Amino acid sequence: MAPMIEGVRIEPRRQIVDERGKIMHMLKSTDDVFQQFGEIYFSVVNPGVVKAWHIHKKMVLNYAVPFGAIKFVLYDDREGSPTRGVLQEVFLGPDSYSLVTVPPMVWNGFKGISTTPAIVANCASIPHDPDEIMRCDPFDNHIGYDWALKHQ
Ligand SMILES: Cc1cn([C@H]2C[C@H](O)[C@@H](COP(=O)(O)OP(=O)(O)O[C@H]3O[C@H](C)C(=O)[C@H](O)[C@H]3O)O2)c(=O)[nH]c1=O
């Protein structure tokens, strides 16, 4: 099994399909992972684009990808964390439809891997605040992750 970063939760979510379309569940106030409501926003990522790296000092992220597909990558550099140094890759989209909950202070970012733009929904625990986000360059940083497609 792929390594899991302490505090990160990945939970499959239901899709209820009928001939008219479908319902895609995301987050309920009664879910275990729910903490509090801050804001919902949608980040659209174009094919092949990397949106990384960032860390939230306070916000808990709740991500789901209802359209398109992404590779979501997380890196734990938290002092004292039992999974410090672990890197985790998660593929998200309607074909592997899940809610991913990310605690504060975990580096994360994503790459659009579908042929259409992908929509990343974030039901965040606090409203967007640029002062609680730290960023670093996707390709030049201490994490050393290679975002390139590998034809294995
Ligand atoms: C989220 C947000 C962004 N912005 C501005 C700040 C930048 O000038 C521009 C793009 O924001 P950013 O570079 O942060 O976008 P993404 O890389 O798509 O990341 C955003 O969406 C992913 C999913 C995250 O979880 C991030 O926390 C969130 O910042 O919109 C605002 O003015 N208000 C907002 O609520």
Automatic annotation (TrEMBL):
A Pfam family reported for this protein in Swiss-Prot or TrEMBL: dTDP_sugar_isom
Gene3D superfamilies (UniProt xref): Jelly Rolls
Superkingdom as given in the UniProt entry: Bacteria
Reactions it catalyzes: dTDP-4-dehydro-6-deoxy-alpha-D-glucose = dTDP-4-dehydro-beta-L-rhamnose
Enzyme Commission (EC) number: 5.1.3.13
InterPro entries: RmlC-like (IPR000888), RmlC-like_jellyroll (IPR014710), RmlC_Cupin_sf (IPR011051)
Group of enzyme by EC: isomerase
Function noted in UniProt: Catalyzes the epimerization of the C3' and C5'positions of dTDP-6-deoxy-D-xylo-4-hexulose, forming dTDP-6-deoxy-L-lyxo-4-hexulose.
Protein name: dTDP-4-dehydrorhamnose 3,5-epimerase
Organism, scientific name: Fuscovulum ytuae
Lineage per the UniProt record: Bacteria, Pseudomonadati, Pseudomonadota, Alphaproteobacteria, Rhodobacterales
